[in-house]
Give the backbone structure.
Amino acid sequence: MASSFTDENIDPSLLTMDPNMDPAQKLMARMRANPPSLTLNLPPPNDENIDNNDQLDLPSSIAIPINLSAPSNSSLAAFGRLVKRQVNLSDASSVAFDQFCQTRSADERQALVYAGVLQMLDLAKKNDKDTVWTIPPDLHRRIVGYVRAFVFSPTTVCYRGINVGEHILKAMRECNVKNLPEEDDIIAVGLVLALIRSKGTHYRNTFKTKVKASMARNSSMRNIATLSHKLLKDTGVKPTVQFYQRVAFIRWCLSNYPNLSEEDFWPKGVDNSIATFRHQHKTQEELDACFNTIYEDDKVEYGKPEDTDLTTVDFSTTPDWQVTLGERTKNIQPQPVSKKRKIGEVEDDDDEGGE
């Protein structure tokens, strides 16, 4: 069967094409070889309606042929002036449009159009990026300050309890911290809670690491006063006798639960010990006496604060926002401690693990 694909049946413009051209290049080659003729329907001129202040309505009426491959600069410029009567352009856009109408080839106009498209894409990407909420620097600083105050507070009842982040965030709202996201902004609130968890893990790790290091015989931080001031340096939290007692308690936990894993130290060694003391001692006076007993033992073992020149401030001078934080976090409940978990079972924890 004879083939119908002969030179006579093939578009002449295709015979000279490079077969390696991409589709866009081939289309442009065809358009240059066989320029299409477009007709634009425009209204007939009406001398009564055309002046510098009137706009033209553009129903279909007359046809103006335009050749894309070889336009007339003067006709395109004249047509451009008609178009400008129908649209509202800024001064800068009006100048850019005039420059477009003065181009001498279709390729030049296509380059200008393509550049405009790219510019719009860039603006769209920038707008998308600008709409993504991020934690402002000042709010970030305040969040870090609240987390530090929570970890280094002598009144914290549960370090890795249920919904610790939510309790801290509520305290911040009550203290009217600026730039906090709205409660119904799930994504933004999630970012804040993630930062609270991250910083909570960091400062608990700092707390435990320094206390553990202080237990070494040759440590320069064995004295509870020296250790406490090292812990609170640059935190904004002032040293009190009550904080000395809390540091002595953390050291007591490290001494009495030496075999707990890094993961279990805070929930099982610290949080559950506090819960046990609070359950056994029904009044605040009894609970204070319990922590004071641990503190007195610590002074015997590691040295008395009076042996240093370091001082404390009265607990009653605690700033109001730290008092509010303590009030809002005092009812945090410990994580339930399971004796054995099944393989693949994940313990419900507000934190991301860690020390």
User: Anything to note?
Assistant: The chain has two domains: 11-131, 137-329. Confidence is low (pLDDT under 50) at residues 47-71, 340-355. Residues 137-329 form one domain.
